[in-house]
């Protein structure tokens, strides 16, 4: 086992506040989809699949409120609404990508730990 790396102590409140917003599965999926450029609501809904219209609307509003996504309305009939990442949203891609790579690289280790706990009667 590697020795623990010493980390600088940080104020947990801002970390908790930001992570509470960006750690949700829908947030990660939406940000990932918008990394390719602007998308309409219906495109996001179709692309993500299992998300409800209510949850997509709510998550997009939260992302807009926090400055990760901007909403652009084109005055046509019917109105066209596109969502795209802001500069802050684009900055979020790097840590999300790193976390995704880590998850893929360590999936088997996590699964092995789960199996050990289950075998020892410590499973959920």
Q: What descriptive keywords fit this protein?
A:
mainly alpha, about 120 residues, 3 strands, Arc Repressor Mutant, subunit A, 3-stranded antiparallel sheet
Structure summary, number of beta strands:
3
- CATH architecture identity: Orthogonal Bundle
Radius of gyration, rounded?
19 Å
Helix content: 55-70%
Distance between the termini: 25 Å
Give the total of domains.
1
Count of DSSP-assigned helices = 5
TL;DR?
With 124 residues, the protein is mainly α. The protein is 60% helix and 11% strand.
Report on this model:
There is one protein chain. The protein has 124 residues and is mainly α. It has a single domain (12-119), classed as Winged helix-like DNA-binding domain superfamily/Winged helix DNA-binding domain (Arc Repressor Mutant, subunit A), CATH 1.10.10.10. The protein contains five helices and three strands, in the order ααβααββα. Strand 2 (69-74) and strand 3 form a beta hairpin.
Task: Annotate the secondary structure layout.
Layout: H1 12-22, H2 25-34, E1 39-40, H3 41-48, H4 53-65, E2 69-74, E3 80-85, H5 87-119
Antiparallel strand pairs: 1-3, 2-3
């Amino acid at each position: 086992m590697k020795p623990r790396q010493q980390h600088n102590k940080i104020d947990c409140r801002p970390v908790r506040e930001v992570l509470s917003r960006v750690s949700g599965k829908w947030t990660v999926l939406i940000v990932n989809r918008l990394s390719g450029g602007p998308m309409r609501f219906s495109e996001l809904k179709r692309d993500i699949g299992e998300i409800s219209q209510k949850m997509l609307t709510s998550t997009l509003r939260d992302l807009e409120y926090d400055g990760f996504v901007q909403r652009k309305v084109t005055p046509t009939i019917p109105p066209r609404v596109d969502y795209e990442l802001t500069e802050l949203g684009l900055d979020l891609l790097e840590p999300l990508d790193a976390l995704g790579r880590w998850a893929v690289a360590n999936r088997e280790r996590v699964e092995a730990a789960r199996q050990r706990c289950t075998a020892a009667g410590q499973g959920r």
